[in-house]
Amino acid sequence: MAFAANSAPAASLAATPGAPAAPRRGRGAKRVLPGFGLTLGYTLFYLSIIVLIPLSALVFKTFTMTWPQFWEAVSAPRVMASYRLTFGASLIAALVNLVFGLLIAWVLVRYKFPGKKIVDALVDLPFALPTAVAGISLTALLAGNGWIGQYLEPLGIQLAFKPAGIVIALIFIGLPFVVRTVQPVLEDAEKELEEAATSLGATRLQIFIKVILPSITPALLTGFAMAFARAVGEYGSVIFIAGNMPMISEITPLIIIGKLEQYDYAGATAVAVVMLVISFVLLLIINALQAWQRRHAGAPA
Asked: 130: closest CA among 90, 172, 175?
């Protein structure tokens, strides 16, 4: 009886002329996009064409080599020196961008000043600027006869055609990743929490460490991962300022290009596979840190 009494108003409402129809659920419900099966199939097909098949071809080409040949190709002294330079410079550049990218994002979000929109637009300049143009521009600035280099070289500071120049180029191309990842998180941050902490007597440093930093750490790690990944594979902006001296300023992508020009396709893919594996491992570590931080903060992973 109670069930009939409760269902009667609903039935009368549904029968009322002009009343909105109840939303249809189940298989007959209309969706904005096609069904799960079609969209999943298209997703897998697209990822296979763009990502999985090229990577599979890279690995299969490496299998044409014997283990001694593979080890000789990926552990040559010149190749090992390029690994150290590529991953070391990428790590340093990503760490620098982690600090200064956060600082720039903070200034753009929390302060108002003349020319703010211009500064905000300049952050995206490395996205729009061709990498070769960036490399040539940095070389013109930092070379011995450049606008900046002509004052540094008399002091014994040489940036162009040295590993330091590579780090500067990687900082330039990786900065927007950190800024654009952290900026929206800072904009959405609840300032009421900061005000509450201030009212309880917390210092600015304590507010930043205990209130702000935990909420932006996942975004910081994401920006760091993207800046690092971009730096590892960067080629165009680096070759002009690196000098490309073997064992000193030769990056791993240039080693791969050199092997391809010598028609050593198996050797090139072997070096590329090593870079791919190392990059995957580092990105998995960063993603694991992100998941741990989310769980620690109580947010869904």
From this structure: 172
Q: Does the structure show a pLDDT above 50 at 282? A: yes
Question: Does residue 43 fall inside a structural domain?
Answer: no
For residue 232, the enclosing domain spans 75-297
Domain membership of residue 250 (yes or no) is: yes
Instruction: Say if 30 falls within a structural domain.
Output: no
Chain-centre distance for alpha carbon 148: 29
Tell me the CA distances in angstroms from 189 to 107, 185, 242, 291, one per residue in order: 14, 6, 41, 20
Instruction: List CB contacts of 181: < 8 A, sequence separation 6 or more.
Output: 219, 220, 222, 223, 226
Q: Report DSSP state, residue 64.
A: T
Structure tokens at 98: 């982690």
**Range name among 37-51, 128-142, 155-169, 261-275 with the lowest pLDDT average:** 37-51
Q: Average pLDDT, whole number, for the chain?
A: 82
Which residue, 13, 82, 126, is CA-closest to 245? 82
Three-class secondary structure of residue 179 per DSSP: helix
Contact by Cβ (8 Å): 170, 238: yes
> Considering all CA atoms of the chain, what is the largest pairwise distance in Å, rounded to the nearest integer?
97
- Structural domain tally of the chain? 1
Q: Which tokens belong to 273?
A: 């596979």
Residues 225, 283: contact at Cβ < 8 Å? yes
Q: What is the pLDDT of residue 296?
A: 61
DSSP label at residue 85 = H
213 part of a folded domain: yes
Amino acid in position 198: T
CA distance linking residue 181 with residue 219, whole number of Å: 6
